[in-house]
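Limitations

Structures in this collection are predictions, not experimental determinations, and the ligand pose is part of the prediction. Treat each record accordingly. The example that follows, with magnesium ion as the small molecule, is included so readers can see exactly what is and is not provided: the inputs are given verbatim, and the output is the predicted complex.
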Amino acid sequence: MGLFDIFKKKKVDQENQSAEVEQQTTPESALSESEKQVTDADQNQPAEKSANVAATDQQNQPVAKDAADTRVSATADHDEAKHEPAEVVAENSKDEHDGDQSVATDHNQNQGQKQDQNEDQHQDKQSNQDVYDRGLKQSRNGFAERFNRFLANFRSVDENFFEELEDTLIGADLGFDLAIQISNQVREAVKVQNIKDKDQIRSLIIEQMVSQYEAQGQNEDQTMHFAPAGQPTVILFVGVNGVGKTTTVGKLASTHKKEGKKVLLAAADTFRAGAVKQLQEWGNRANVPVVAGPEKADPASVVYTAVERAKEEHYDVLFVDTAGRLQNNVNLMQELSKINRVVKKVLPDAPQEVLLVLDATTGQNALQQAKLFQDSSDVTGIVLTKMDGTAKGGIVFAIRDSLHLPVKWIGFGEKATDLRVFSAEDFVYGMFKDLV
Ligand SMILES: Nc1nc2c(ncn2[C@@H]2O[C@H](COP(=O)(O)OP(=O)(O)O)[C@@H](O)[C@H]2O)c(=O)[nH]1
Ligand SMILES: [Mg+2]
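Predicted complex:
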């Protein structure tokens, strides 16, 4: 089943569910129906249920299976996790404050922690599709608005129509090349299928966008790679300042720790003041140790220490946070390849992943950054952050079209549970569900 067919099936399932709910009258049956609805909705989440995973998207399989496992162990770990991070924070704040004041601060911080954890637990339970739907709201509405405006002007399929279509797609951040490609495909399909009617055109354009997106992803390896059991996996995070590297490392530390993994962090952004402390805060919160050097330490030496420790103390995974800027880009790229070499010295098969973090709100600019990093470090995938803050989700299409790098994770907010394994199905549905 193609991506567009999966999309349509989801849409029909959702409409059926809404219709069923509307038919309910008595509160008692409404309750059981809404429970049923939750179950049905869950069953439609390919990234979360292994049965569906096996039946649908090959690309997502290993990652998605992992996500399903996570879900089980995360629930099992909750009781344990509830207490640990709060204690760590309490210890820390004792260092910083003294006397009675510290008691009050500790108390407030503990309360805050508990609240955060309750929210996290609530969000852990949210299905991927719910999180995608919420996080893509701006993009969905933004695209629908543009697209409907374009269709409102529709008179006939002429040159003007195709020009306006291209402008609409470029406006949604799909990029120039992809906009032209999609427009040409729509031109072909309109001719072959002799389409004249506005509703058919609407559906056709979305179908072409989805199909084109699917076709271009055929050779992408979307899975996360891990070292064989018993050896540490090393994952480097690269990208310019402010895109969300440290936040992503923190979020992944938190979710992997909850899965029961032994997690270590390396603070290799020694260039920017405050970067180490920011990572240490995430480490404290997730109850995960952070390897850091003195101020302005050589990043590669911090990484070396961290990799050795990961190996000797049998960590499952080491996440390395790197600098987004040095004196200049040449220095930065040299530093990143030095880090890479140092990792390999200790663990020849590592790093298993070099993830480039891109900020979705920067649009086409993100693609320029990507080219810079792609040229000089062996980037294996993308983490696309801040999708919640953009109305131009089309950047996901542009990334696939122009970089041919898989998006592996997607960020919909600042909390640990807002970072999700990327699922093309959930993404496409979250983007276009109001339009077909
Ligand atoms: N809304 C939103 N904010 C994010 C997301 N990811 C990161 N941020 C914010 O982006 C800012 C920069 O993040 P940081 O991790 O310090 O970027 P770095 O310089 O690449 O390490 C912080 O305020 C983060 O909270 C996301 O997915 N959504
Ligand atoms: Mg940072």
